[in-house]
Specification:
The complex is a heterodimer.
Chain A lengths: L1 H9 L6 H4 L20 H4 L1 H31 L5 E4 L3 E4 H27 L17 H18 L5 H21 L22 E3 L16 E6 L9 H8 L1 E5 L8 H6 L4 E5 L11 E3 L4 E3 L6 E3 L5 E4 L8 E2 L1 E3 L5 E3 L16
Antiparallel strand pairs in A: 1-2, 3-4, 4-5, 5-6, 6-11, 7-8, 8-9, 9-10, 12-13
Chain B lengths: L1 H5 L6 H26 L2 H19 L1 H4 L16 H10 L21 H12 L10 H4 L6 H11 L1 H4 L6 E2 L5 E2 L7 H10 L14 H14 L17 H25 L8
Antiparallel strand pairs in B: 1-2
The chains are: A alpha+beta, B mainly alpha.
Catalytic activity (chain B): a quinol + 2 Fe(III)-[cytochrome c](out) = a quinone + 2 Fe(II)-[cytochrome c](out) + 2 H(+)(out)
Protein name (chain B): Cytochrome bc1 complex cytochrome c subunit
Pfam families (chain B): Cytochrom_C, Cytochrome_CBB3
Chain lengths: ~350, ~270
């Protein structure tokens, strides 16, 4: 009750049309129209216009010369010629002249066009009114009548068998395009789960291409290894090393916190996959004092002394560890493939 | 002579002869004694160790302990070898100025003779990598292409593909390799200072280290060419992209503004 009274009070008193009427302008949003056109010097003085014409032509001519210069420098300069150019220092003569001439050629076309448009082309302001998009009623009526005629003549409403089979045919045709998507490469099958590592494969030092021996690997050192039998000039070398790349470090066995990691190591020599489990960057920014490995792409950090546990960053899994031992010749060897897929996760990884 | 022999019975003659004999003996001793001492090689070595121990007690013992055993402020120096001392002290990293994420390179405090004495003392604490000879680190005649291959496999992940350095975790970083002497690069690979892992001769032989030094000196030396002009620190797409967006696009916007701000009308308003 009372609230209604208050709201009644809060409202302004009813407008007295006779007393408080505001005089409304005839059109408060009248179009002020375009300002008066002001001419340019080139519009008044023919000599200035000629001068502008010459300037534009000069820029286009210089652009032509720069293009010729580009072709000439491509022919003249050998690819390994180094010259000193202030302030750039020792630069390749070829790169520098190609960049300079092509830059000038493009810039002068643009600058000439801008100068032409600003000084010589018509700059009279023009207003272009909008038009309704809708068709006229006569056209609309004609189209609808034509459509009704067509429907009646084709008898699509009466011969339902034809209509339904046509709909079926139209619905099935796109499937042919969907089936063609199957050609987007063979399925990866088991390739993501397996690497070249297998029981008995020796660890080959990627510097010397010799089998690694446990006594070669000292505490605090970093070594990269690849599986025995992989040749650098093999056609699938890149595909194979992208999965099999291995980093070898040695940690005092007592400092290895993870029990399984210590068992899979050989006297403190641990072998981890070099491929980050986030998006597969090669990682080996190893800090020997903390045993942390940092990925340069997204800063995922792994602790190699704790089974390569993720201690920072977006990676979802620890780096897979390769189980290693020593064979009868005293060389380091793998005791099998990685126990889990290396690199980034995928849908079916599990 | 006649005069001298005439005075041979002078009361002071005996004194003169004695003085001459003493002078001759002293002179002979002074002339021969140091030469005889220098011939004893191990004595010189132990002298260097003694001198090094004195320098160590003054400059290093507060952090590394009186016998190099290490304290909570500094690691043990037993077994780090003379190469580690030559690198750490020779690049000014040691003695450290203040604790922190990383001990940076700075002005060298000791001269080379003192560094050698310190190195001799630390090497005497336990066997470790030995300071390389000039012939071991000289990159002339090394295989630059092989060095590049090895650098990209072993070093580029931290030091960037031309040795410009890069960031690590918690404020640590891999330093720029420009201007680092071949000897110090060699020693760093051999000993693994601070966060850097070591690359001992057993996994990276001497010749490969030379190849790497030759590569670094070719791509990141004083007279290395930069074929594309301004290298912008050689840090890759981040600095190049930033430069392109700010100066390239900024320049285009500035030209557009300049064109629009200058009216072509005859009568300026």
């Amino acid at each position: 009750m009372s609230s209604q009274e208050i709201s009644e009070e809060g409202l302004p008193a009813e407008q007295d049309t006779a007393h408080g009427a505001v005089k409304v302008a005839d059109d408060p949003f009248a179009d002020p129209g375009l300002p008066a056109h002001r001419p340019r010097i080139q519009d008044i003085d023919e000599r200035a216009a000629k001068r502008s014409e010459r300037t534009v032509a000069l820029m286009f001519t210089l652009s032509m010369l720069a293009t010729i210069g580009f072709i000439a420098s491509y022919v003249i300069f050998p690819v390994d010629k180094i010259v000193f150019i202030w302030p750039f220092g020792h630069v390749s003569a070829l790169n520098f002249s190609l960049g300079l001439t092509l830059g000038l050629a493009l810039f002068l076309i643009g600058a000439g066009a801008v100068h032409w448009a600003r000084t010589l082309m018509s700059d009279v302001e023009v207003a272009d009114d909008r038009h309704p998009i809708e068709a006229t009623p006569e056209v609309k009526a004609k189209v609808l009548a034509d459509f009704a005629d067509g429907a009646r003549e084709s008898a699509i409403g009466r011969r339902k068998l034809i209509r339904n089979t046509m709909f079926g045919a139209l619905a099935l045709v796109p499937l042919s395009g969907v089936v063609l998507l199957r050609d987007l490469g063979p399925l990866p099958e088991k390739k993501l789960r397996n690497t070249l590592w297998a029981k008995g494969k020796q660890l080959v030092n990627m510097n010397t291409m010799e089998p690694l021996r446990p006594e070669d690997v000292v505490v605090g050192s970093l070594t990269f290894a690849m599986p025995e039998g992989l040749e650098e000039d093999a056609h699938d070398f890149q595909n194979q090393i992208a999965k099999a790349a291995l980093m070898i470090v040695r940690i005092e066995p007592d400092d290895i916190k993870d029990k399984q990691s210590r068992e899979w190591a050989h006297e403190g020599i641990v072998a981890f996959s070099k491929i980050c489990t986030h998006v597969g960057c090669p990682i080996s920014l190893y800090e020997q004092q903390t045993h942390h490995v940092l990925c340069p792409c997204h800063q995922s950090t792994f602790d190699l002394s704790d089974g390569a546990r993720v201690i920072f960053g977006p990676a979802g899994h620890p780096l897979p560890q390769l189980r290693i031992g020593v064979n009868s010749e005293g060389n380091l060897e793998a005791l099998g493939d990685f126990a889990e897929p290396v690199g980034p996760a995928f849908w079916e990884r599990g | 002579m006649k005069k001298l022999s005439a005075r041979r019975r002078h009361p002071l003659a005996a004194v003169v002869v004695l003085l001459l004999a003493l002078a001759a003996t002293g002179g002979l001793y002074a002339a021969f004694a140091p030469a005889g001492k220098a011939q004893a090689d191990d004595t010189a070595q132990s002298l260097a160790i003694d001198e090094g121990k004195k320098l160590y007690s003054v400059g290093c013992a507060s952090c590394h302990g009186s016998g190099g055993q290490g304290t909570t402020d500094g690691p043990s120096l037993v077994g780090v070898g003379s190469a580690a001392v030559d690198f750490q002290v020779g690049t000014g990293r040691m003695p450290a100025q203040q604790p922190g994420a990383q001990v940076p390179k700075k002005k060298v405090i000791y001269n080379q003779a003192q560094i050698d004495q310190l190195a001799a003392y630390v090497a005497s604490l336990g066997a470790g990598p030995i300071t390389p000879k000039q012939s071991q680190v000289d990159p002339s005649g090394a295989d630059v292409a092989k060095g590049g291959d090895l650098f990209r496999t072993n070093c580029a992940q931290c030091h960037n593909f031309t040795g410009k350095g890069g960031a690590l975790t918690d404020g640590k970083y891999a330093p720029d390799l420009e201007g680092v002497s071949p000897k110090h690069i060699y020693e760093a690979m051999q000993t693994g200072p601070q966060s850097m892992p070591s690359f001992p001769d057993s996994t990276m032989p001497e010749q490969e280290k030379k190849d790497i030094i030759a590569y670094i000196k070719t791509v990141n030396g004083d007279d290395s060419a930069s074929p594309g002009g301004l290298s912008l620190g050689g840090l890759g797409p981040v600095s190049e992209g930033l430069f392109g967006w700010i100066f390239g696009l900024g320049g285009l916007i500035a030209i557009a503004v300049w064109v629009a701000a200058h009216t072509a009308k005859a009568k300026k308003s």
